[in-house]
Automatic annotation (TrEMBL):
One Pfam family recorded for the sequence: Beta-prop_Nup120_160
NUP160 middle TPR domain boundaries: 733-998
Protein name: Nuclear pore complex protein Nup160
Locations listed in the record: Nucleus
Any GO MF annotation of the entry: structural constituent of nuclear pore
Keywords: Nucleus, Transport
Domain Nucleoporin Nup120/160 beta-propeller residue range list: 14-467
Domain of life: Eukaryota
Domain NUP160 C-terminal TPR: 1042-1285
GO cellular component: nuclear pore
InterPro entries, alphabetized: Beta-prop_Nup120_160 (IPR059141), Nucleoporin_Nup160 (IPR021717), TPR_NUP160_C (IPR056536), TPR_NUP160_M (IPR056535)
Length: 1298
């Protein structure tokens, strides 16, 4: 489109959306001519070549733009949601140095101020050799023909002038101005008024019409005029008495050169269309006829292979479209008016029972009513803005535009919301009138596609159904020559139905808003009862205001017979009657094929609804005449049924396909429902909301139009669109056996619309009742009304065998194969699967119980029903019922599977008491196997399955198996436990094992070790940690454990626990000798002593470590004393000294050491402790010194001597010798000898030698003297007593001998 010096280009996809489909071209210093823009495809071009060319004629140059052709492979991607790229994105401007891209032409003469801007006629086309040809009319009466070479050729552009006379002849006849370059105020008589071209395989023709009404045909190849005809010879003298308008139109229809049709339009007081035909290789022009029309101003004209389209400016400021078919033989040509969709009204009537805001929003945002441009402008004016592009409105999405409109309208302060919406509606209607006003035609000669171009977009011209064309005819103009075999009475009845519609609604049946008496009686949204009531009221109105019509009905002899053909024609399944040819009445629809087809279908349903209702009113009026009473009642019932069907179709088809609003909590449920249906909502990827009728087309994918063209067997777009309209009407029909409309609403999650549709359909229709009940149940199911859904599912099961195909299509597919069984059982199976996917256990239980009651024993679905029933009982934690159902199962595999699920459910829900109390009967071994397998597969630290297994065996009084379970737990904990909790649990497991095994009789109180001690847990049996293959394990023998061995393992586990509490790096099982250093370092001396005794280890390291602790406390600071209280508390202190007031930690430690030495009774331990104390240079405690002196004096003396305690050792030796030599006093038996004493003479000798080697000090000399004296005294006494003993022995011997 050329506007304001710009060339506006936009590409619209008929099957899909396109990206980058709008381009605006600006030519600096040049103005494009209105008729100088041509888009042509290069003949014979391949997909790799520049197969499209944009030819532009401007006031100073001709240009050729290259465009990529749409690749045929792109049609394979039409089913995807990714929009294709427009060819306008690849628009390449011409190179100024390329001869095939641009060429300058002479500029037009100067413009006279005040005169209309001259626009010379022009045309452009592509030749078979891919040459671009431009033809421009000059002001001197010639035609400038410019030829640009094909792309890639090195030829030069060629420019010639086509003329029929010389320059001298034109000068003398006044065709040429006397001074060239002077401004021209009016066209010359011989100058060209219109141009048109035609290119075929045989020749290239250029047709020109001059202002002196001479039509010439030029051969472009020979650059000569081959035919000329003066149109003045074809008109009457009365017509020629008035001059024509300076605007001329010349159009040529496609086809072979011998069958070209030309139309020339001349504007006299009445419009004249002169139809001509080219014959004999385009060398002869034959006049066919003249067509007259009483219209003043023609805006555009277009030709198709079948007829002529004309666009007129109406007297009321609007536009009208008319169509005339080419005549055949002696037929007369008549113009047929095109029924245009009415412009939106600036005011709407809001019924009292409806909300004004909702009514305005439904009216404004109804799909197809307002274009985006009108809404943008209305919002801009409402917000007092200036430029929509600067305001950013044009870049908004439809949803964002809607939100901003609502915010702007309802955000006004101090103004009623209804008034704000009314004002915005007035703005939108005003701009819609301007945007939707047709400007010109766009016709595709090859496919017959006809469109109207407006500022707001494109509008399709779609042929109407023959009956709709008949019903749209003006009242009183019907005749017997109709596409249906109607008799005169039937045609009369249809004419009267049109009159009743005008009476009821105040204007034509397909008009806009109602303004008659029935404006408040909206039959399109009323209920069935209200519809019947309104029909009786309309019959009374007919009797009141149309008595002549009633009397005319009495003239019809057999009224029921006349009504039946009309009812059959109203039904959407009726045949067309004749092929949709050139004699058609067209409807002006939306901007895309799908929206156009949907709009025509919805409009046709409204038309048929009004006709049906008018016919119903007529039949009710005729019923009062008591003629054909019984037959009329039957027809009234059928007509009412038809009205109800069309009312439901219209109401449902025009509703919006939207994604329902939902709370956050229901989003997950809704998405699960959509996954059950295996569909994606259409509303989630639409730029703007669409009606249900349009959504039904879009749901099948963008290739529906291509499929329709293949099904129609033709590439004629009128036939394709007509077939689509009929097919869509059939799909939308409520009583369609395929139930397509209900299935679509279900798949697209249009649940409110589906509920209303099904409830309304069930109230009056007997068709598809069970399928409708099933769809209603699914709608209830997905909206949360589970009980209603269950009732609908059970009712729909009654006819599952009769409507199997439809029900299986509505129900979700089942991936698993269906078992053999009846159709009703398979239906129940699919219903259960759908309810299971929606997580409704109560409904599944109800359906499964009903199915089990109706199923036979040999039905293959019984196992499935029992399985699903069992699973839902588990879901609801009804375990006792599940156990009873488990006992009734006959299938062993299914029973085991359900048992495993029952045990798993009890474990997962922590119902351990039920697991031990439920009567499993013969399945106890299976339960134990499940528990053991589950216990060995879970984490041994956090799990409690071994404890549960222990409780299960205890409940069965099987104590040995209970002990075996806890022993396995203890061993696994020893291998896998890594923390303190695991060690503590291992200790408890050993204790429980010992307790359970203690109950068993002594001969049977033994267990088999579950795993060998050297086995590692958590490692591969075939490879090491480095990935190397390990040798095959040696066959292991069973190891039997008795009670004492278990007690020893318990002690070892306690040691591990105690160390793990202090050292986190302790992992795995550690040998007892390796545990001793850790225990001693931690101060666990009681546990270390017990471990040493149990595993027959030496206790000496224990006393050494304890003595070291005592010495450290004696010498250490506060930190060591604070730590000592902890390890002292971990041991068993003497009961008498525990908690004594005033005792220090060192005293407590020495007391604890003394307590252990006394408890163990080993003299070597005293020596060890004494050696440890002396080694640290600390004086030994008195009690330790006394105990060592009494137990082993020799060792004590050696220790003192070796650790430098010479003075102490000498004093002890002196005291020992003195004690021996001191006589006993009191209680001495006469003649008795003291017990024999063994003095450490070697140690005393070493002491004496050491004293003799000391420095000559008085102290050492005194000790040495005393020691020698004591030793001498001891020796003397020993000698003396020895003599006495010998003498007493001799006397005793003599006495005995005597």
């Amino acid at each position: 489109m050329v506007c304001q010096g710009y060339v506006w280009l936009r590409e619209r996809g008929l099957d899909t959306e396109l990206d980058g489909s709008a381009v605006r071209l600006c030519f600096r210093g040049l103005n494009p001519l209105p008729e100088g823009v041509t888009l042509a495809r290069e003949p014979g071009a391949t997909a790799k070549d520049c197969a499209m060319a944009l030819l532009v004629v401007t006031t100073g140059a001709v240009l050729r733009f290259t465009l990529p052709a749409p690749s045929p492979s792109q049609h394979d991607a039409l089913s995807s949601d990714i929009p294709l790229t427009s060819i306008l994105c690849g628009l390449c401007p011409p190179d100024p140095h390329d001869p095939s891209g641009t060429f300058p032409i002479p500029p037009p003469p100067p413009h006279i101020p005040g005169a209309p801007l001259p626009s010379p006629p022009s045309t452009a086309w592509l030749s078979l050799g891919r040459q671009a040809r431009f033809a421009v009319a000059t002001t001197v009466g010639t035609i400038l023909l410019v030829t640009l070479p094909a792309p890639g050729k090195k030829d030069e552009p060629r420019q010639v002038e086509l003329c029929c006379s010389s320059a001298v002849q034109r000068f003398f006849t006044g065709w040429v101005p006397n001074v060239r370059g002077r401004a021209v105020d009016s066209p010359l008589p011989g100058s060209t008024a219109a141009l048109s071209s035609h290119c075929s395989s045989t020749c290239e023709l250029l047709l020109s019409l001059s202002f002196d009404l001479k039509l010439r045909v030029w051969n472009v190849d020979t650059e000569s005029c081959i035919s000329e005809l003066s149109l003045l010879t074809l008109f009457s003298s009365s017509l020629l008495s008035q001059p024509p308008s300076p605007r001329f139109w010349l159009r040529i229809s496609p086809g072979p050169s011998s069958a070209l049709c030309l139309v020339v339009h001349l504007s006299w007081p009445q419009s004249l269309f002169c139809l001509l035909r080219l014959k004999e290789n385009a060398t002869k022009l034959v006049h066919m006829l003249n067509i007259y029309m009483r219209q003043s101003e023609l805006r555009d004209i277009a030709l198709t292979p079948d007829g002529i389209w004309a666009l007129w400016n109406a007297e009321d400021g609007g536009t009208k479209v008319a169509y005339a078919a080419y005549p055949s033989d002696d037929d007369e040509v008549s113009w047929q008016g095109v029924v245009m969709f009415p412009f939106p009204s600036a005011q709407i009537h809001v019924p009292p029972h409806l909300d004004a805001r909702e009514s305005y929003m439904d009216y404004i945002f109804e799909p197809g009513r307002f274009c985006r441009q009108a809404l943008n402008r209305a919002l801009l004016i409402f917000r007092r803005g200036k430029d929509p592009e600067k305001a950013g409105i044009t870049a908004w999405t439809y949803s964002l535009l809607r939100r901003n409109i609502i915010t702007a309208v309802e955000g006004e302060r101090g103004v009623d919301t209804s008034n704000s919406w009314a004002r915005f509606l007035a703005y939108a209607a005003q701009y819609q009138h301007s945007a939707a006003k047709p400007l010109s035609f766009i016709v595709c000669p090859q496919s017959g596609l006809s469109l109207l171009l407006s500022a707001g977009g494109l509008s399709f011209l779609i042929p109407a159904h023959p009956f709709d064309r008949l019903a749209l005819s003006p009242t009183g103009s019907l005749s017997n020559t109709m596409p249906f075999s109607f008799c005169t009475a039937t045609v009369f009845l249809l004419d009267k139905a049109q009159q009743v519609s005008e009476l009821l609604w105040g204007e034509d049946v397909d008009g806009g808003e109602s303004h008659g008496e029935w404006m408040e009686r909206d039959i399109e949204i009323c209920s069935s009862l209200e519809l019947e009531k309104f029909a009786h009221e309309a019959a009374l109105l007919i009797w009141d205001k149309c008595s002549d019509m009633v009397h005319q009905l009495c003239v019809i002899p057999d009224l029921p017979t006349m009504v039946r053909p009309l009812l059959e024609a109203l039904h959407p399944s009726s045949p067309d009657g004749s092929n949709s040819g050139s004699d058609v009445c067209t409807l002006h629809a939306g901007s895309l094929p799908t929206s156009a087809v949907a709009a025509v279908t919805v409009r046709a349903s409204r038309l048929r609804l009004h006709i049906s209702f008018s016919l119903l009113a007529i039949l009710n009026a005729a019923l009062n005449m008591d003629r054909h009473h019984r037959l009329l009642r039957t027809l009234i019932k059928s007509t009412l049924h038809l009205c109800q069907a069309y009312r439901l179709l219209y109401q449902t088809a025009r509703s919006l396909v939207t994604l329902p609003t939902m709370s956050i909590t229901s989003i997950e449920v809704t998405m699960r429902h959509l996954s059950v249906l295996d569909s994606r909502p259409l509303a989630t990827h639409l730029a703007a909301p669409v009606s249900v009728a349009e959504g039904l087309l879009l749901a099948s994918g963008p290739t529906s139009l291509l499929q329709a063209s293949k099904a129609a067997g033709s590439t004629s777009w009128p036939q394709i669109l007509t077939q689509l309209c009929q097919s869509l009407m059939h799909l939308l029909w409520p009583e369609n056996p395929s139930f397509s409309l209900g299935e679509f609403m279900l798949r697209q999650h249009q649940l409110p619309q589906l509920q209303e549709f099904c409830l309304e359909l069930l109230s009056w229709s007997t068709q598809n009742r069970n399928v409708c009940m099933l769809a209603l149940g699914q709608a209830y199911l997905f909206t949360g009304e589970a009980e209603k859904a269950l009732s609908c599912f059970l009712k729909a099961a009654q006819a599952a065998a009769n409507e199997r195909d439809v029900q299986l299509r509505l129900l979700p597919p089942d991936s698993s194969p269906s078992p053999p069984g009846s159709l009703e059982m398979n239906y129940y199976r699919k219903v259960i699967l759908q309810l299971e996917a929606c997580s409704l256990p109560e409904l599944i239980i109800s359906v499964a119980k009903v199915a089990l009651e109706k199923s036979s024993r040999d039905d293959g679905n019984v196992v499935m029903f029992q399985s699903h029933l069992f699973l839902q009982l588990l879901e609801l934690a009804r375990y006792h019922e599940a156990q009873q159902l488990l006992a009734q199962m006959k299938d062993p595999q299914g029973q085991k599977s359900c048992l495993r699920k029952l045990v798993t459910s009890l474990l997962d829900n922590s119902h351990f008491d039920l697991l031990t109390t439920l009567p499993f009967g013969d399945l106890q071994l299976e339960v134990v196997s499940i528990l053991e397998s589950r216990a060995r597969s879970v984490d041994v630290v956090t799990g409690c399955l071994y404890e549960l297994l222990y409780a299960f065996h205890i409940k069965q009084q099987n104590y040995r198996k209970a002990a075996a379970a806890m022993l396995e737990l203890a061993w696994r904990l020893g291998r896998e436990a890594k923390d303190e909790d695991g060690r503590a649990k291992q200790v408890d497991a050993y204790m429980v094992t010992i307790n359970a095994l203690s109950i068993v009789r002594a001969p049977n109180a033994w267990l088999v070790m579950p795993l060998s001690q050297g086995e590692r847990g958590g490692t591969s049996p075939k490879r090491s940690h480095d990935g190397e293959i390990v040798p095959a394990p040696v066959e292991k023998k069973l190891v039997v454990l008795e009670l004492w061995e278990l007690e020893r393992e318990l002690l070892l586990a306690r040691c591990h626990l105690a160390l793990s509490r202090r050292y986190s790096q302790l992992h795995g099982r550690v040998r007892p000798p390796d545990l001793m250093p850790g225990l001693l370092q931690a101060g666990l001396f009681d546990m270390a002593l017990a471990l040493s005794k149990s595993f027959k280890l030496s206790c000496t390291p224990v006393f050494e470590a304890l003595a070291l602790k005592c010495v450290t406390l004696q010498l250490g600071g506060d930190e060591a004393r604070n730590e000592a209280w902890d390890w002292l508390a971990a041991n068993e202190l003497p009961p008498g000294n525990r908690g004594k007031d005033g005792s220090s930690v060192a005293d407590e430690a020495w007391t604890y050491l003394q307590y252990l030495l006394k408890r163990e009774r080993g003299k070597e331990y005293y020596t060890t402790v004494m050696g440890k104390v002396l080694s640290h240079g600390l004086p030994p405690p008195t009690w330790l010194l006394l105990e060592c002196k009494h137990r082993n004096l020799a060792s004590l003396l050696r220790l003192l001597l070796s650790h430098g305690r010479l003075s102490t050792a000498a004093s002890l030796a002196i005291k020992a010798l003195t004690l021996v030599t001191t006589p006993l006093t009191g209680g001495v038996i006469p003649g008795a000898f003291p017990p024999p004493l063994c003095l450490p003479f070697s140690a005393i000798d070493q002491i004496a030698a050491a004293l003799s080697n000391q420095p000559p000090l008085e102290h050492w000399e005194q000790l040495h003297t005393k020691l020698l004296a004591a030793l001498d005294g001891y020796l003397n006494k020993a000698t003396r007593e020895s003599h006495e003993m010998e003498s007493q022995a001799a006397e005793r011997a003599r006495f005995i001998a005597a």
